[in-house]
């Protein structure tokens, strides 16, 4: 039989672990431009350094900060397309999708 005490002892560590996981995500490593996933998508920390000949879809003003996949409001935010690592708000990659609204 599960007592209330046993139930709490089970739930609390699970909640603590969940907090740790979300904490890790908030402090995710910054992606390296040489990371294979970053290279594959032509990611640059500075959107103005994007190879416009190779990526003609790039338009000035398009940056991670206004991309649909960008998770964050600061200078760096998590991008699920680059392994959940942090990308620069001023960066850009070829998977860019303008944020709606
Ligand atoms: Fe930046 Fe969007 Fe590319 Fe992610 S998908 S790296 S947020 S442009």
Descriptors:
101 residues; alpha+beta; two-stranded antiparallel sheet; 2 helices; 28% helix; binds iron/sulfur cluster
Description:
With 101 residues, the chain is α+β, with helices and mostly antiparallel strands. It contains 2 helices and 2 strands. It has helices at 4-26, 36-40; strands spanning 76-79, 85-88. It has a two-stranded antiparallel sheet. The radius of gyration is 19 Å and the shape is elongated. The mean pLDDT is 85. The structure holds iron/sulfur cluster. Iron/sulfur cluster binds at residues 43, 64, 67, 69-70, 79, 81-82, 87, 91-93, 95-96.
Order of helices and strands: HHEE
- Report the helical percentage: 25-40%
Roughly how many Å is the radius of gyration? 19 Å
Question: Structural class of the helices, strands and pairings?
Answer: alpha+beta
Strand count, sense and closure of the main sheet? 2 strands, antiparallel
**Numbering strands along the chain, what is their spatial order in the largest sheet?**
1-2
Chain oligomer state: single chain
Hey, roughly how much beta strand do the residues contain?
5-15%
Q: How many strand units?
A: 2
Overall average pLDDT: 85
What low-confidence regions span 5 or more consecutive residues with pLDDT below 50? Answer: none
**Span between termini:** 53 Å
By DSSP (H or I, 4+ residues per run), the number of helices equals 2
- What are the distinct ligands in this entry? iron/sulfur cluster
Shape annotation:
elongated
